[in-house]
Amino acid sequence: MLDVTKHKFLKFLLSGTMYFSEGIGFALLTVILIFYLNDQGFPYYFTTFVVGITNIPWMIKFFWGGIIDHFLESGRKPFIVFGSLISAVGFLAVAFISPEFNIIAFTLALILADFGLALFDTAFDAWAIEISNENERGKINGAIQGGLAAGLVFGASVFGYFSKSYGYSLAFISGSLILVISILAFHLFVVENPRKKQNQKLTKILVKEFKKRSTQALSFFAPISTVGNGFLILAIPLYFSDRFGLDVAQTGLIYILFPLCRLFGSLVGGCITDLKEKKKVLTIYICALSIACVLLLAAQNWQMLAVFYGLFAFLHGGYGTAILAIFMDITNPKVGASQFSILTSLMNFGESGIGAITGTLLAIVGFSGVFLYAAWAYGPALLVIHFVKLRNLTVK
Q1: For the chain: N or C, fewer Cβ within 10 A?
Q2: Tens-place pLDDT, residues 18-55
Q3: Is 396 a domain residue?
């Protein structure tokens, strides 16, 4: 077995590889699922509502974090493995349940799959905090976000083709199989060092951490910062279909621009974040994202939209790397799963909550209105981050 803490390159490689499998799950739960439900005749507002419901496990990541930290002596690895296996079971169930005949069972299977991903994500984040130092947080988050993006690229393109040529069931079965293979490899080759028993109660440590002003300010910032992306994450695939008449395979190929550009943006952002003051880097990314949202309105054809969409994705990758690196910096490793998952739960709440009502907003204000709301949403985030005070962790 490998002790990745002794090999810097392996830490980054492993993080990217494991999040590649999570990215495949996200591709199934966003792009493929949206087209699946649309092909079954479900309206946009219902489709986005179902996707929003399946994201509930991500909104309560803090709950899974508390459980993981409670069993700290058992390590993070069991939860990483268990979460992936649960997700694989959920996707396998989705493959054999028809939403047309049993939408409730179908939705529950989706929730199970997403719960597994959320549990895996929470445990792995805590493990990443433990095996990295402040000088590596940008790079390790760059690897994580890059792997996630690569999984989305693979999932959206390959599974989009599978769905059109062989049916949606094969896509969900294939995704389940990839999750099983990746997590078995992780289990076989990665060793986790034993931990000492906690002397302090986790709740007491956690309360102390959230009494800090910087943590409170970032807790307020977290949900606000993801509203803009929440508007766009489901609207863009629908826009390609509604405005330009592209099918699931065509949209899947174009959609890979987002994770592909996000992959490069994450890697670039990771390097920049470790070299510069993280707050300044984050502020620049927020301003740029707002401008990128407005540019989407200027697209007169799908080629132009794809270019602006790629720009937004590149910036979003760097932004995600910077904010998660800041979250890791302020997180106490003793409550790594709990504290970090609370912050990311708030981010997910802002993104998924808005995502769930995107279909309704599209019916009211149209695609142009949604894009403008997304651009406007970064304004409050910029205002809040201005008042967040962080100690300078930059290494000269």
Answers
A1: C
A2: 889 999 998 898 778 888 887 888 887 788 788 778 88
A3: no
Asked whether residue 12 is assigned to any structural domain, the reply reads yes
Task: Provide the residue range defining the domain that includes 272.
Answer: 4-386
pTM strictly above 0.90: no
Would you say residue 392 lies in a domain? no
CA nearest neighbour of 78 among 2, 178, 186:
186
Total number of domains constituting the chain: 1
pLDDT digits (tens, 9 = 90+) for 93-137: 999 998 888 999 999 999 999 999 999 999 888 888 887 777 777
Determine the pLDDT at residue 335.
Answer: 81
- Would the pLDDT of 359 be above 80? no
Computed over every residue of the chain, the mean pLDDT equals 82
Cα–Cα separations (whole angstroms), residue 352 to 227, 231, 312 = 8, 9, 18
- The pLDDT value recorded for residue 360 is 73
**SS3 per residue for the chain:** CECHHHCHHHHHHHHHHHHHHHHHHHHHHHHHHHHHHHHCCCCHHHHHHHHHHHCHHHHCHHHHHHHHHHCHHHCCHHHHHHHHHHHHHHHHHHHCCCCCCCHHHHHHHHHHHHHHHHHHHHHHHHHHHHHCCHHHHHHHHHHHHHHHHHHHHHHHHHHHHHHHHHCHHHHHHHHHHHHHHHHHHHHHHECCCCCCCCCCCHHHHHHHHHCCHHHHHHHHHHHHHCHHHHHHHHHHHHHHHHHHCCCHHHHHHHHCHHHHHHHHHHHHHHHHHHHCCHHHHHHHHHHHHHHHHHHHHHCCCHHHHHHHHHHHHHHHHHHHHHHHHHHHHHCCHHHHHHHHHHHHHHHHHHHHHHHHCHHHHHHHHHHHHHHHHHHHHHHHHHHHHHCCCCCCCCCC
CA distance 199 to 217: 29
